[in-house]
Amino acid sequence: MISQRLGAFAQGYLVAMVKGDRSEELINRGLAAGVVFWDIQRKAPGTILFKLYARQYPLLRPFFFRTRTKGKILWRRGWPFLWQRVRRKKGWLLGMALFFLLLLNLSSFIWFIQLSGLEQIDPTRLQRELAALGLAPGVSRRKIEGKRDWLIRELRIRLPEAVWITIGIKGVVAQVTIVEKTRPPATEEKSGHLVAGKDGLITRILVIDGTPLVRVGDMVSRGDLLILGETSLRHLDGSLEMKRVKAAGEVRARVWYELEIEEPLTIWEPKPTGKEKVVYRLRLGRRLMPLFRRGQTEGLVRQTRAVKTILPGRNGPGLVELIKDTYQTVEWIAMPVPPETALARAEQKGEEKIGLALPPGVQPERVDQGWTVEGGVLKYRLIIETEENIGVSD
Amino acid sequence: MGKEKKKEGFGAKVAEFLELPSEVVLNLPRLILTGDQQLLVENHQGLQVYTCTEISLNTSVGALRVMGEELNIKLITQDQVNIDGRIRKVEWGEREENP
């Protein structure tokens, strides 16, 4: 149906009206002659409106007389008639051509600049920078399209707050989209350097801001300058701009920690002599009452306590308790410790100390150990190698 | 008349046996009714009556009367008629005898 309508428009069609009692007969005769009718409407008894191809209308003419009907063309439609009308109006045609030329010409300029993504940056400042770089309303689209990459690059230098900039051109609108840097919380210092917090051999450097002063493989001592708090921006014209910044980055280095643990090879232990005193007490709430005692002690004593709860309280110690204190007379004697036992103790202590000596999150990469015996003491030495960030703000 | 019917009967049998479309073999009209809104009639033999409530078409098997409201002929050619509107009734009238 649509193709038929399009075909009709292209070929030109007529809207015709037929009056008479035998209008159906006229249509039948027309059909027999190959005429195609569409949108047939009966407007009133004996009056039919229909559409037909303009070239087929002459085929109907003989049938008007034969069927005693009257035919009238109401409208001529379609491209051939439209073109005929337009062709006659030369001024109108010229005006249309001029209008389209003007439209085409005006659409080759940028008339609007749309800014988006601005949070901290002042839009007026951005407009000023864009205008200084040549992007302003009225500038040719082709000119901007040719230097779009240069514009973005130059704008990034002029707006250090921006982390990402794009310029898109849609019709007569230049869309400038900016993503601003998300700055870490402001620190008191506006600029500063990054120095080594520990001695180490540098393995990797990642500079976020500032100028690195060391290289991979350098050996640095605590306090050495790692990243200078200054940066240089090179403009396209070759000029350099120095700027003070807060140095930021990560400087990873091999760091060695040394731990020494001393473990005695002789320990003094109390040895009961056999003399002892036993004291029984009864505790009622806060009151402590001695019940009875037996035996005697002298000199150094060692006390041991045994408690039996008779009536437990709700919280804390029981309400009623029977306490047995044993006091034993002891003498201290030197007990030799085998080196293997002392070493095992030292190793256990070493394990605990490693955890305390290393910064949080740092794992040992290599651990070297050794031990010596000096003056009745076992000296256990640990050398721990790690890789960690040694950069700290000065 | 008898001869004609005999011919049609033979044609119908042949069409059925060879599984051929009977409207082609027997020159019968073909109707496609879409809901109550559109009727496509193929193989008609002319328009008899056309009003807003009734359209009557000549076919090989007699008059086809389409009744309804706001009936319009969207397209009419030698082979087909496209009718739309609110179709209420489609019925076959008496077959016209060929002179």
Tell me what you see in this structure.
The complex is a heterodimer of chains A (394) and B (99). Chain A has five domains: 2-83, Alpha-Beta Plaits, CATH 3.30.70.260; 109-180, membrane protein fhac (Ubiquitin-like (UB roll)); 194-251, no CATH class; 260-264 and 337-393, no CATH class; 269-334, no CATH class. Helices cover 26% and strands 47% of the residues of chain A. Chain A has helices at 2-11, 23-32, 57-66, 79-88, 90-106, 123-133, 141-146, 148-158, 339-357, and strands at residues 13-19, 37-44, 47-53, 70-77, 109-110, 112-116, 139-140, 162-170, 173-180, 194-196, 200-209, 211-212, 219-220, 225-228, 230-234, 240-244, 248-264, 266-284, 287-295, 301-311, 320-336, 366-374, 377-389, 391-393. Chain A is elongated, with a radius of gyration of 52 Å. The two termini of chain A are 83 Å apart. The mean pLDDT of chain A is 89. By secondary structure, chain B is α+β, with helices and mostly antiparallel strands. Chain B has a domain at 28-92: Immunoglobulin-like, CATH 2.60.40. Helix content of chain B is 20%, strand content 48%. Chain B contains two helices and six strands; from the N terminus they run ααββββββ. A six-stranded antiparallel β-sheet of chain B has the order 1-2-6-5-4-3, with no helix packed on it. Chain B starts with a helix and ends in a 7-residue tail after the last strand. Chains A and B meet through α2 and β2 of A and β3 and β5 of B.
Question: Could you write a compact summary of the structure shown?
Answer:
The complex is a heterodimer of chains A (394) and B (99). With 394 residues, chain A is of the alpha+beta class.
* Chain-averaged pLDDT of chain A: 89
Low confidence ranges of chain B:
none
- Specify the helix fraction band of chain A: 25-40%
Q: Runs of chain A with pLDDT <50, length 5+?
A: none
Q: How many structural domains does the protein architecture of chain A include?
A: 5
Q: What is the largest interface, and how many residues per chain?
A: A-B, 18 and 15 residues
How many β-strands of chain B, per DSSP?
A: 6
**Secondary-structure element order of chain B, N to C:** HHEEEEEE
Mean of the pLDDT scores of chain B? Answer: 83
Query: What class would the helix/strand composition of chain A place it in?
Result: alpha+beta
CATH class wording of the largest domain in chain A: Alpha Beta
Main sheet characteristics of chain A: 5 strands, antiparallel
Shape of chain A: elongated
CATH class of the domain at 28-92 in chain B: Mainly Beta
Q: Could you please say which CATH topology of the domain at 28-92 in chain B applies here?
A: Immunoglobulin-like
Number of helices of chain A: 9
